[in-house]
Design brief:
heterodimer, A: 169 residues, three-stranded antiparallel β-sheet, 31% strand, B: 575 residues, mainly alpha, 82% helix, 0% strand
């Protein structure tokens, strides 16, 4: 019996779906969770709806937080090494070389190159929220809002949750 | 709850009655619209009168082959595709609402299963063994593709991927759809890929900091996927040129983009030896030249929006001149006048809002730019219409244009926004609209009277239709002057009657173009009223999904009706 083309396409789609879920699961199984402090803004995405933009104390590249010379040539990857201040993790220093596994660090990018004051992307800048609840985050500015991120040994991270509900209770 | 359900039921019945009337009318009498069928009937009559012999008859008949109901399918496709798109938008809005009461895995499973089922059913209905509903099959494939996009969107939302990765989201979606386009030869999915490709370009721009060449690469890739189909290539080229405008924040980038686009099309023209396609090289070249000129004059920064609007209209005037050259016909003059009409229309609208050109506030940009784009889209549609209907007669084109002129202001008045807009600006708006309506009425009255005389047309104008149009517009004026509270109803009924009248007019005058315009107008009318009635009553995702399901349901009824008529016609012919 000849298998319809639509079945093959569905098989391809299931493979894409499984691949995505597998990749996401692999990111989860290694590494650990940490809490960091964000500054939220509340816009809306064309496809995925309301989200909050988070900016962190390590989102802006500063030469003053660098204990090493900037390597020659075009640089777009940088590591933010974090330290625990009791309630959350904050920036300790930036580094161009991958830190040891003992330290907590995030891998960041700036496609336009790295210079003083440039914004670095860590893939933890957006948090998608139920429609109309973004203002809660804006109101939490300057408060005790924290974001739990999962970091794997390569420094790749994604947001797991926030403590916004505990704050409102 | 009861009244809500009752309202939905009433609207459903109304849509069914309104939608079925013209469609049934058209299918019952479609041979009237078929030029080849008319010619074949004439030859048959000549044969019966023994004016020609059987051999000559067969030779003549072979010159006019029947087009096999292609147009009827296209009409249905519009209803189906709009329905599918509405369901898709509804599903995307549902995911975007990030509703926490439903578990994530359930949302994912629901979207995935629905997309698989839609694709499978679509493939089934497209198969030869089930030719009863082939157009439904095509729309279900499109729906499956949209719902698959919903699955990807959900994954990116659920796992909190940053918005800077939207390019990856759209990229995965495009790659997943390519097999449907190539293997299943789905045209709607091809157009979906065109749109997604340009959205992909926008997201890549954000990622790579204004690298506009991505659009060029994308459109070249799409050109090869179009495999020489003229309509597809035209749509891609139009979109490609329009996207050059998004680069205007950086004029040098825009000019470079247009120059490269022009070079690409020029090479294509030479390779294919098709001088008609030279227009795709000409338009970006003129745009590049004009903006370079403005840039050097250092005038660009202050008034570029004003110039953009003007350039758009000037270009619209060049297109008809080119068409005159190509077809040696009057079509160019019609295009020129259309462009002039739209230009003046935009001008009056801007003045009505006290939004003058040059040096005015930020809101002016919005209105002017959008009117420019609307004018451009309408003109592009007309270019296609004229290019693909080279034998379009003088009279029918004029009649088509006059109806279009009249309906645009009535459509705008028919919205709540049109008549309930208060204050001085609202009054000014109404005043301008009334003047446009008067202008349109003059055009509607005189053109169909004058043109038959100029073109020595044997068949004269049906005065009853003209009188009915006058009656409808007069009713609108009277309601605006003395029954302001009820004017919204009068305007809507007048518009509906004029649209339905166009079906009879097109039948009597043998004008398929006018019939198609009426169908599109009816569809827009139904959608607008649906928005008016239910936008505030329902959740947005439910609003779109219900609307889409209604349209697809109506289309299924119409397609089945068409199938029965086809069968009965075949039986009649066989007997």
């Amino acid at each position: 019996m000849k298998i319809p083309k639509s079945i093959w396409i569905i098989v391809l789609w299931i493979l894409i779906l499984a691949g995505f879920l597998f990749y996401q699961q692999a990111k989860l199984t290694n590494g650990h969770d940490i809490w960091v402090k964000p500054v939220p803004v509340d816009p809306r995405d064309l496809f995925r709806g309301d989200y909050v933009i988070f900016s962190y104390d390590f989102s802006t590249f500063r030469k003053t937080a660098l204990n090493e010379p900037i390597p020659e040539g075009f640089q777009k990857t940088v590591y933010a090494i974090l330290k625990n201040n009791g309630t959350s993790y904050v920036l300790d220093k930036f580094s161009f070389t991958k830190p040891s596994k003992e330290s907590v660090f995030l891998k960041g990018f700036s496609l336009g190159g790295l210079y003083d004051g440039v914004q670095i992307t860590f893939n933890i800048e957006s948090f998608f929220v139920p429609e109309g609840t973004g203002t809660k985050f804006e109101q939490a500015i300057g408060g005790n809002l924290l974001v739990k991120i999962h970091v794997n040994p390569n420094g790749e991270a994604f947001i797991k949750e926030t403590n916004i509900n505990n704050l409102s209770e | 709850m009861f009244y809500g359900l009752l309202a939905i039921l009433v609207v459903l019945v109304l849509i069914f009655v309104i939608g079925s009337l013209p469609t049934y009318f058209f299918f019952q009498h479609r041979q009237k619209f078929n030029h080849s069928a008319i010619m074949q009937m004439e030859f048959q009559a000549l044969l019966e009168k023994e004016k020609i012999d059987t051999e000559t008859y067969q030779k003549l008949v072979s010159l006019y082959p029947l087009p096999a109901k292609r147009n009827a399918v296209t009409l249905l496709q519009i209803v189906y595709i709009v329905g599918s798109i509405l369901i898709g938008i509804g599903a995307i809005l549902f995911i975007a609402s990030n509703w926490q009461q439903m578990a994530g895995w359930f949302k994912l499973a629901l979207a995935a299963v629905l997309s698989f089922v839609a694709l499978l059913l679509g493939d089934y209905f497209k198969q030869k063994r089930s030719r009863k509903l082939p157009v439904l099959g095509e729309s279900l494939v499109l729906l499956g593709s949209l719902l698959w996009g919903v699955v990807i969107i959900f994954l990116f939302q659920h796992y909190q991927w940053s918005v800077s990765y939207n390019w990856l989201l759209v990229g995965i979606w495009i790659v997943s759809l390519l097999p449907i386009m190539i293997w299943m030869k789905s045209e709607p999915v091809f157009y979906l890929i065109i749109i997604l490709s340009f959205i992909f370009g926008i997201f890549c721009q954000n990622l790579l900091a204004e690298h506009y060449w991505i659009y060029l690469l994308l459109s070249i890739a799409l050109f090869f996927l179009a495999k020489g189909n003229r309509v597809k290539e035209g749509i891609i080229a139009g979109t490609q040129i329009a996207f050059g405008f998004t680069c205007l924040e950086h004029v040098t980038e825009a000019v470079t983009f247009w120059l490269l686009t022009s070079l690409f099309h020029l090479l294509f023209c030479i390779l294919r030896k098709r001088k008609e396609d030279l227009i795709y090289a000409l338009v970006p070249l003129i745009l590049a030249g004009f903006f370079t000129f403005l840039y050097f004059l250092d005038y660009y920064q202050e008034k570029h929006w004003m110039w953009m609007q003007t350039v758009f209209v000037l270009l619209a005037l060049l297109v008809p001149i080119y068409l005159v050259y190509l077809h040696k016909s009057i079509a160019g003059l019609i295009m020129w006048l259309t462009a002039g009409y739209l230009f003046l229309w935009g001008y009056f609208f801007s003045r009505g809002l006290e939004a003058y050109w040059g040096g005015s506030g930020h809101s002016t940009y919005f209105y002017e730019a959008h009117f420019g784009y609307i004018a451009g889209i309408i003109l592009l549609v007309m270019v296609f219409m004229l290019v693909f209907q080279k034998k379009n007669p003088f009279y029918s084109t004029w009649l088509f244009m006059t109806q279009l002129f009249l309906w645009i202001p009535v459509f705008l008045l028919s919205t709540k926004w049109g008549t309930e807009w208060g204050g001085a600006v609202g009054d000014k708006y109404l005043e301008r609209m009334n003047w446009i309506l008067v202008l349109a009425l003059i055009v509607v009255t005189f053109i169909p009277v004058v043109i038959p005389i100029l073109s020595n047309r044997e068949k004269k104008l049906k005065w009853s239709y003209l009188a009915f149009t006058w009656f409808c517009v007069a009713a609108i004026f009277v309601s605006l002057l003395w029954w302001r509270d009820y004017s919204i109803f009068v305007i809507n009924f007048a518009l509906l009657f004029m649209i339905i009248q166009s079906f009879f007019w097109s039948y009597e005058e043998d004008l398929p173009a006018l019939f198609y315009l009426g169908m599109v107008a009816l569809l827009v009318f139904i959608l607008l009223r649906y928005f008016d009635l239910f936008w505030s009553m329902m959740n947005r995702s439910v609003f779109f999904i219900v609307g889409g399901v209604l349209l697809v349901g109506i289309a299924v009824v119409i397609e089945r009706q068409r199938h029965h008529l086809d069968r009965s016609e075949e039986k009649h012919e066989n007997s």
